[in-house]
Amino acid sequence: MKNLVISDIHANFEALQTVLKSAGDYDSIWCLGDIVGYGPDPNGCIDLLKSLHNLTCIRGNHDVAIIGDMDTKLFNHDARSSIDWQRSQISSENLEYLMNLPEKVNFQNCILVHGSPRYPIWEYVLDPFVARANFDHFKEDYCFIGHSHHALICRWDPVKEKMDWNSQVNGHYHKMAPRMILNPGSVGQPRDNDPRASFGIFDDELMKWEVSRVEYPVHITQKRIADLNLPEKNGQRLAGGW
Ligand code: ZN
C-alpha cells in the first residue's frame, strides 16, 4: 500500500488541495496534526480532509488549542491571534471533529504522533539527541512525526548503536530499515526556506519513503490572510518558507 503522509496543514487550503492532487496514486492518507492554526481556511481544510477515504488523523498542538484544551499563552502572539480568530470561525461539527482526534495511532509496525512519541503534542524533534531519547519511547519500527515543519529521516541502529540524521531528504527514495523517525515536512507552512508544500509517500510493500515538494498558489493564501486581517507575518512567511 502507498500511504500519503501529510502534516501541519495550518488552515492553508490551497496547499492542501495542491498536495492531494499532485501526490499521484495512494491508498490511504495519514495526517499528523495541526490541521488548523495560522492560516485562513480552518473549516475548508477540515471539510476537505473529512471527505477523503482511508484517512487516519491525529491531533497537534494547534488543534488542541482551538478546542480549548490548552492555554494559548504558550503560543507566540501571531499564532495566538490566529487561534482566537479560528475559534470564532470554526463550525460546531468541525470543532467536534478536532475534539475526537486521538493523540497517537499505532499500526502494526508504525506509530503516528504530532510532536514526539515521548510528548506527542508538544516536543520538537530537532536534533539527534532528542531523537535518540525518543527511540526509547516507542516499540514499533517506524515513527511518523510532524510539528517541526522540517522533513527528516532519522535512523537508529541498535546493534551498531549508530544514529543517522538526514534532513536533506527531498526528491529521493529512501529505503526503510528499522528503526526510524520520519517527518514529511509541512503542507501549509514549510520552514526550511523552501516555500513549496511538502509531503511524504510511504510504500509499505517496497518499504520506501519519499518526500516531495510541490508549488501551490501562495498568493491566493496570502490574499485570503490579508482580506481577513490575520497577522501580516502569517502571509509573508509563506513566500519565503520560514
Ligand atoms: Zn505546526
Q: Look at the structure and give the CATH class.
A: Alpha Beta
Over all CA atoms, what is the radius of gyration? Answer: 17 Å
Bound molecules: zinc ion
Q: Could you tell me how far the N terminus lies from the C terminus, measured between alpha carbons in angstroms?
A: 33 Å
| Secondary-structure-derived class | alpha/beta
* Succession of helices and strands: EHEHEHHHEEHEEEEEEEHH
CATH homologous group name: Metallo-dependent phosphatases
The backbone outline, from C-alpha atoms, is: globular
Strand content: 15-25%
**Helical amount among residues, as a percent range?**
25-40%
Strand order of the largest sheet: 3-2-1-11-12-9
Counted up, domains total 1
The description of the largest β-sheet is: 6 strands, mixed
Low-confidence stretches: none
The third-level CATH topology is: Purple Acid Phosphatase, chain A, domain 2
Calculate the mean pLDDT score and round it.
Answer: 95
